[in-house]
What we know:
Membrane topology: Multi-pass membrane protein
Number of domains: 3
Number of helices: 17
Oligomer: single chain
Strand content: 5-15%
Pfam families: EMP70
Shape: elongated
Keywords: Endosome, Golgi apparatus, Membrane, Signal, Transmembrane, Transmembrane helix
Transmembrane segments: 283-305, 347-373, 379-399, 420-440, 452-475, 496-529, 535-563, 575-594, 606-634
Structural class: alpha+beta
Organism: Arabis nemorensis
Number of strands: 18
Radius of gyration: 30 Å
Amino acid sequence: MEFRSSSRISESSGSVIALILLLFIHAAHSFYLPGVAPQDFEKGDELKVKVNKLTSIKTQLPYSYYSLPFCRPKKIVDSTENLGEVLRGDRIENAPYTFKMREAQMCNILCRVVLDDKTAKAFKEKIDDEYRVNMILDNLPLVVPIERVDQGSASIIYQLGYHVGLKGQYEGSKEQKFFMHNHLAFTVRYHRDMQTDAARIVGFEVKPYSVKHEYEGEWSEKTRLTTCDPHTKRLVVSSATPQEVEQKKEIIFTYDVNFQESEVKWASRWDAYLLMSDNQIHWFSIVNSLMIVLFLSGMVAMIMLRTLYRDISRYNELETQEEAQEETGWKLVHGDVFRLPTNSDLLCVYVGTGVQCLGMVLVTMIFAMLGFLSPSNRGGLMTAMLLLWVFMGLFAGYASSRLYKMFKGTEWKRIAFRTAFLFPAVVSAIFFVLNALIWGQKSSGAVPFGTMFALIFLWFGISVPLVFVGGYIGFKKPAVDDPVKTNKIPRQIPEQAWYMNPVFSILIGGILPFGAVFIELFFILTSIWLNQFYYIFGFLFLVFVILIVTCAEITIVLCYFQLCSEDYLWWWRSYLTSGSSALYLFLYATFYFFTKLQITKLVSAMLYFGYMLIASYAFFVLTGTIGFYACLWFTRLIYSSVKID
């Protein structure tokens, strides 16, 4: 049916190719992806509502639902969470709400709370920071429908979670007051099977209200409210008399549950969540970016092919010694172009780390496009990225040791050790500082000690050994000889024109790769920091492929110009040319912070820039490695294509 691959996997052990083919072959039976199997409900079946973290785009600090004095069940039960959910700060617990399938309820009294100074202050702080309450029903997050009028036509958009409360003033007063959303009107949408009469949940919505409930006499468990009573058909439809948050004020929490049949099938129930953004602008921007980059790529490829063909033909036609002595350009540095670069060990480490990043991103996108990392599998994306990073350590060790052996190195264990620890150590240091800040704010986003131990185990117990295994395999494999021999005495590099200055060319080289992704980057940052879903992985994969092509081409072009100016120090410059796009990424993240976000607290700002620094660092090693390998392939190709005397 829905969210599943139409194939039946044989229980017998088959080949990998057969397994992949089975994923695409339509058969009679099907299987569901983990965690997203549909559940049928009969009329009157109990529905389990769960509460999740409180979130705010102003602070970026999540808190558990029961960190505020909301109504509680008799016993709070924590749901089992995966690694990604814990790292995201999710804290999923049972809720005191009681739902029964297709049985409407009106004015259910949840509990009565009398605020003291501490609880009133806690509610005010969360309302002031615009915190939202997140809930889950049948793996669907709670949303608030909002009608939006755009160019004369009305449409419904959905926001995740409802605000804890709101700020405002009474009529005729300028004093700022805080009001609590204490009445929730839930709407559960379901799709009914006409044959079995069973139903599946396809929507979970809420409209929050702030109501100062009133009642007669003393409060008891059997008290009937005069402001919300189904017997007198008095229902809450507005916040005309809001519930103020102040010390010694009593707050009565109530809720309605309404069930509505829907034509939306279970397979399409996530469409409302995934179509929140301005899709026309998004698609137009992506296509426009792709067309520009493809045009530039075609122009660069054409120029390079024609220029190189002319150069190689001219060099191979030189016959006399006098002609050979008069030659200029990239052939003159053939005896130095493969000379050992400075800090060659560090270059090997960064290249290996880049291969690890590239493998992680590539495989993650493939799984996401196949639907294995859908939003319904909360935390699945982050869990997959962590595990893939760990297992890609094998390729990191292999790549770094292969390059190290090409540099005539002998101590491969030292390179493997640095590859296993350099990048993770830098990221871990930043992460621990940020986690300490989150701990100081008593946020649920702080990683527990158990999870921290699991992360350390993944690093030291799995990733490090795999790096050494890959390093051993790569070092034992026979090395590939350079196309030309290296001179004993290094050639003096002539004075370079201003436009061939290393810093200038490196900074210029990073613009084009960043230009290939900056539009998509806007939507990614919006999904991360503005609490929205991002699930257009097909387009993201296409943009990623174009990023790879762009990094490779711009590095090759600038490397060619560098060699033509008789500068043979291309090793590090090729890495930094495409890797400098990470600088533009961080600058764009800074621009996004000041123009799109409403963060005012210092701790929240430090979290933002800390995490964006980690992302920029990873982007640096990823794009730098792509550019390096492209330039390595290019230099080996052109110097093996000419006759060297």
